[in-house]
Design brief:
Elements: H1 2-8, H2 11-21, H3 25-38, E1 45-47, H4 48-52, H5 55-59, H6 63-69, E2 77-79, H7 80-87, H8 97-100, H9 111-122, H10 132-153
Antiparallel strand pairs: 1-2
Helix pairs in contact: 1-3, 6-9
């Protein structure tokens, strides 16, 4: 699978993704290998169902919201570049990244972009507001997960 991943991803694509996301060459090729292993349809995209097969997301009380973050409104598939752009929000913040090139746009993993990303996880109807109901939905999911964990431990 690793050889398949490296042959289908062109060097210029890797360089573009490096610039956009801040991931290293080796991180990109490893994530591409993971992406292709999740791509059960073998069509170069992932569906929501592909994400739901990831055990860590399946048990996460916010898993459905995390999965939704990978899909632009109205889309039901995500390609590798979109996958990487979303994952870039989870990269650690490196304060010196912006100072390397002051004319560059703000990195996807900047504090501002991380906050916007987290906000969108809660703003289900995408009206740029987190309503009381949206917040309660999250709190209820987390509360149910905690209760299930406590029962499991006893």
């Amino acid at each position: 699978m690793g050889s398949r991943a490296s042959t289908l991803l062109r060097e210029e694509e890797i360089e573009e993704i490096k610039k956009e996301t801040g991931f290293s060459h080796s991180q990109i090729t490893r994530l591409y290998s993971r992406f292709t292993s999740l791509d059960k349809g073998e069509n170069g995209t992932l569906s929501r169902e592909d994400f739901q097969r990831i055990p860590e997301l399946a048990i996460n009380p916010l898993g459905d919201r995390i999965i939704n973050a990978f899909f632009p409104e109205g889309e039901d598939q995500v390609n590798f570049r979109g996958f990487m752009q979303t994952l870039a929000h989870f990269r650690p913040i490196e304060d010196n990244e912006k100072s390397k090139n002051p004319t560059a746009s703000e990195p996807l993993n900047s504090r501002t972009n991380k906050l916007l990303f987290a906000f969108r996880l809660y703003d289900l109807d995408r009206d740029d507001k987190i309503s009381r109901d949206e917040l309660l939905q999250v709190l209820e999911k987390v509360d149910v997960e905690q209760k299930m964990s406590i029962r499991f431990l006893h």
